[in-house]
Write a sequence for this structure.
């Protein structure tokens, strides 16, 4: 593997970017600090593949970290965006597209009777917390170590994702005041939740119902049911952060899959089809507290942006019953292939999957929470990542992320990934 870092154009562009942007990137994990080497600079994507500025092509398992459930540049999504762009890109006034996307989401997720669009998952979670506090008159929120809910001050504690990747417990610049009302306990630890909910009145319990930001970690049987019960008993609102799982693990997201109804739900990623979007929603009663109907203020210049709305609508139109069956089948094929590859290579790894989300952990124990995830051998993951990249497979550059499979990943692409994984596991 001598070719990994012979990406001259990417290296040159990174140097240039590093002079004017921290790490040369717009989001930290993209800088490849956890895996070493230079990130390829991407100039085009089509289907399940991306091409870098050095002309190398990769099977892409990042898929923009989740939004691209239909793959890159899906013709119908591209057409919808192009047609809307020709009519203008933003008006700062209501559009028919917003109401249509809102109705589409509400139909798929019945607990979401009303919703508000924002421009990112961060804003969605931040606004949901504000609403939960406004609705309950309580300050404290409970979250789980390893769950990421965006980078708002209150939610950065033990937030998995890029923080875990960089080994940071939290962020500088967050005041003790902003963090003081956030309680963090281990994922899948219902007893800890019971204790915390008994010790102080909680405005909300925030959870990734199927965790994706410490790698792919499913809830134990009864965990989500237990959270629902604790919320019902104590008056805390149950907030499902479905920024990854929404329209990903089922059309109705984690709520359809688990049968548990959330009080508030956060969306992002898939509902924007690759353009910047987030949303939060819940019952008519709760959402009627949001301005202009109620006292909880929240606004956005580009919220409900027509390009994003139309990309979201075009993407959600592709997600029928057959699409989810396909995502499950292709995800299962990849899982089985990786398990076989690991066995053949004699590698002690663990593959965890939910639908089209999957993580290969370099640990031999089941990963039920962030501490388990941290037992992964990150150096081996880094070597594996470099070896895969050299073989033309682009994985998320962190042990603590999900691989995202899309409708554009065909059997041939899965075979390529599995063959690359076997060879890479043998050498890393
Ligand atoms: C990505 C993500 C967010 C943040 O969304 P951004 O659009 O990156 O701000 C929030 N919650 C979860 C579960 C996420 O995966």
């Amino acid at each position: 593997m001598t070719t990994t870092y012979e990406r001259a154009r990417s290296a040159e562009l990174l140097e240039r970017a590093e002079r004017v942007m921290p790490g040369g990137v717009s989001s930290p994990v993209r800088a490849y600090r956890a895996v070493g080497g230079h990130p390829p600079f991407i100039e085009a994507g089509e289907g399940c593949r991306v091409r870098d500025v050095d002309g190398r092509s990769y099977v892409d398992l990042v898929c923009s970290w989740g939004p691209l459930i239909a793959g890159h540049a899906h013709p119908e999504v591209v057409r919808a965006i192009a047609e809307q762009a020709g009519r203008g890109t933003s008006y700062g006034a209501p559009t028919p597209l917003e109401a249509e996307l809102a109705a589409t989401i509400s139909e798929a997720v019945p607990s979401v009777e009303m919703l508000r669009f924002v421009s990112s998952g961060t804003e969605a979670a931040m606004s949901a917390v504000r609403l939960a506090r406004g609705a309950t008159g309580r300050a404290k929120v409970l979250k789980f170590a390893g769950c990421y809910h965006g980078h708002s001050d209150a939610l950065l504690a033990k937030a998995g994702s890029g923080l875990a990747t960089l080994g940071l417990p939290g962020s500088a610049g967050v005041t003790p005041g902003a963090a003081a009302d956030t309680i963090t306990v281990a994922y899948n630890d219902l007893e800890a939740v019971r204790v915390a909910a008994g010790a102080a009145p909680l405005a909300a319990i925030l959870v990734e119902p199927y965790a994706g930001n410490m790698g792919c970690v499913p809830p134990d049987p009864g965990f989500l049911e237990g959270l629902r019960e604790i919320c019902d008993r104590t008056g805390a609102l149950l907030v499902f952060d479905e920024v990854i799982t929404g329209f990903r693990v089922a059309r109705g997201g984690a709520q359809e899959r688990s049968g548990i109804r959330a009080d508030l739900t956060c969306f992002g990623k898939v509902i924007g089809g690759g353009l910047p979007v987030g949303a939060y929603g819940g019952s008519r009663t709760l959402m009627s507290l949001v301005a202009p109907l109620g006292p909880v203020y929240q606004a956005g210049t580009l919220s409900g942006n027509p390009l994003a709305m139309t990309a979201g609508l075009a993407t959600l139109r592709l997600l029928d019953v057959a699409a989810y069956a396909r995502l499950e089948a292709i995800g299962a094929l990849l899982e089985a292939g990786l398990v076989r590859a690991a066995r053949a290579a004699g590698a002690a790894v663990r593959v965890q999957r939910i639908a089209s989300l999957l993580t290969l952990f370099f640990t031999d124990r089941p990963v039920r929470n962030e501490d388990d995830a941290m037992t992964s051998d990150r150096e081996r993951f880094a070597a594996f990542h470099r070896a895969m990249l050299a073989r033309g497979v682009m994985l998320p550059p962190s042990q603590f992320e999900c691989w995202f499979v899309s409708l554009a990943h065909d059997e041939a692409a899965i075979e390529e990934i599995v063959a690359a994984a076997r060879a890479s596991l043998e050498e890393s």
The mean pLDDT is 95. The pocket of pyridoxal-5'-phosphate is lined by residues 120-122, 125, 148-150, 208, 212-213, 241, 243-244, 268, 278 (CB under 6 Å). The domain at 75-317 is CATH 3.40.640.10 (Aspartate Aminotransferase; domain 2). The chain has two domains: 8-74+320-427, 75-317.
